[in-house]
Design a protein that fits this description.
Layout (H helix, E strand, L loop, with lengths): L1 H7 L1 H19 L4 E10 L2 E2 L3 E7 L7 E5 L4 E7 L1 E8 L19 H13 L34 H4 L1 E5 L2 E4 L2 E3 L1
Length: about 180
């Protein structure tokens, strides 16, 4: 390249400029972004809570997880191209209450602490200014559990995929 630049004059300048342009296009221009929004629908009705995972086909890109609101709505920004999709709402599934009178074989000091907590009542309310963060350990996923087929829980079995275009798009996800 240096040899050409010394002897080529104007031709070498154009050649360097062209090569730099090609390198800039190949290296500098990353994948575009698309913004998707829509609803997750199960049996034609919005799924009232859960999480949607989008895994780009490009192995260099990380999966993106977004929470559904109580109306089944989501909004996410993703790299353009094909994504595989899964939907999981098992965090909302009610846990069975312990059966009253059963022994858990806990040490006496733990049983005493549990008993004391029950007698004292509920935990203190959050501060009046509402400064409780959504990332706090006590935060619970929003929504209501609705049983969906297990196949939708993982990317490998859901059968859901979509090609993300650039720009804003509305894309409902129908679980069938």
């Amino acid at each position: 390249m240096l040899l050409i630049a010394r002897n080529g004059g104007m031709h070498a300048a154009w050649l360097r400029c062209g090569l730099l342009s090609i390198v800039a296009v190949v290296v500098g221009c990353g994948q575009g972004k698309g913004k998707l929004s829509g609803q997750v629908l199960w049996n034609g009705a919005p799924l009232p809570g859960g999480k949607v995972t989008f895994r780009p086909a490009d192995p260099k890109a990380n999966p993106v997880v977004v929470e559904l609101d109580e109306g089944g709505n989501y909004e996410v920004s993703l790299p353009t191209g094909e994504v595989l999709v899964s939907v999981d709402n098992r965090d909302l599934e009610p846990r069975p209450a312990p059966i009253a009178g059963t022994s858990l074989n806990l040490p006496p000091e733990v049983r005493d602490a549990i008993s004391k907590t029950k007698k004292e009542g509920a935990p203190p309310a959050p501060p009046p200014d509402g400064n409780q963060t959504s990332a706090s350990p006590s935060s619970k996923p929003r929504g209501q559990y609705v049983r969906i087929p297990d196949k939708f829980y993982t990317i490998d079995t859901s059968g859901l995929k979509y090609t993300v275009p650039s720009g804003n798009q509305k894309q409902d996800i129908e679980l069938k």
